[in-house]
Hints:
Elements: E1 19-23, H1 30-40, E2 44-49, E3 62-65, H2 74-80, E4 85-88, H3 96-109, E5 113-116, E6 119-120, H4 126-131, H5 135-148, E7 152-157, E8 160-161, H6 162-166, E9 175-176, E10 181-185, E11 192-195, H7 197-207, E12 230-233, E13 237-239, H8 241-252, E14 260-264, H9 266-278, H10 285-293, H11 302-306, H12 320-332
Parallel strand pairs: 1-2, 1-4, 2-3, 4-5, 5-7, 6-7, 7-12, 8-11, 10-14
Antiparallel strand pairs: 9-10, 11-13
Helix pairs in contact: 1-7, 2-3, 3-5, 8-12, 9-10
Amino acid sequence: MTTKYSKDQPQGFSNRIERVAIVGAGGQMGRYIAEHLVKAGKHIVTAITRASSTSPQPEGVQVIRVEYGGDDDAALVEALREQQVLIITMAVTAPTGTISKIVRAASKAGVPYVLPNWFGNDAANDALCKDVLFSGFRDSILGEIKSLGVSSYLLLNCNFWYEFSLGGGPNRYGFDFTKRSLVLFDDGDVAINTSTWPQCGRALASLLALKELPDDENDQPPTLSQFRNGSIYISSFLLNQRDMFESVKRVTGTTDTDWTITHESAEQRWKDSMAALQQGDRKAYAKMLYSRMFFPTGDGDYQSRRGLHNDLLGLPVEDLDEYTAIAVRMGENGEVA
């Protein structure tokens, strides 16, 4: 792709992102993204939500209510007109057809950049994506964006959300805080990248605060355009289960003897949960997904393979125990479904 420069753009071109729309701004990830974009003060942030939605929207965002479940997308297209970036943050169980419809509407509205509901594992790892059933969605939605020929996609590779996953029960990071039990996958020594919700929000706010294009051939990145049709890699921590356990013990003031610790094969957990999923047991999905990430192949550690964009985006080093404490509270109070 030929590099574009700010100096060559038409008169009136603004070399920064000023208008950002979010579908799902009231959700788990969406509210952190919206809050950090608003806090940065560099964008007009618009939450696009269903007319029937009762979810509270973050302070400081403009709200446009529109139904996008039917065949008529005129209202959605109009809501997206003049937006420079569309961020889609929907549940992993959201119908691909709904996301596809939003992507097509963004194309009709001429939105230059779309984040198409990818906040997870390394999108460039084909074997991993196949094993966790993400390949179909990835290939379909990215292929559609490319074929429409209007928008460029941006993918945030942040891996599992730390607070959510640690506090989310034994099918995720193996911890049950109400029973004080821990399932170690194999020996519990496989490290994976994991990110907090605020770090994800900061990352996107920093990304969209970059210049869109280099000024000229002598202007070096970072710019938003360098990530066009590609991935942003961020992380809060690179941890194995034993690292997490040490943090949990510090936060809770417990020792090994206060916990029931068992071991299971990550590969066997993945096989068993995949078989259950194929038999129609949707509850096996999380167990399948998380077990695969802890394979000794190191697929969950993209930091070692790809590097991180933390420094480029000016992301802070976070306090592990601070977020472990949040996860413990969430787990004890049953805040994670």
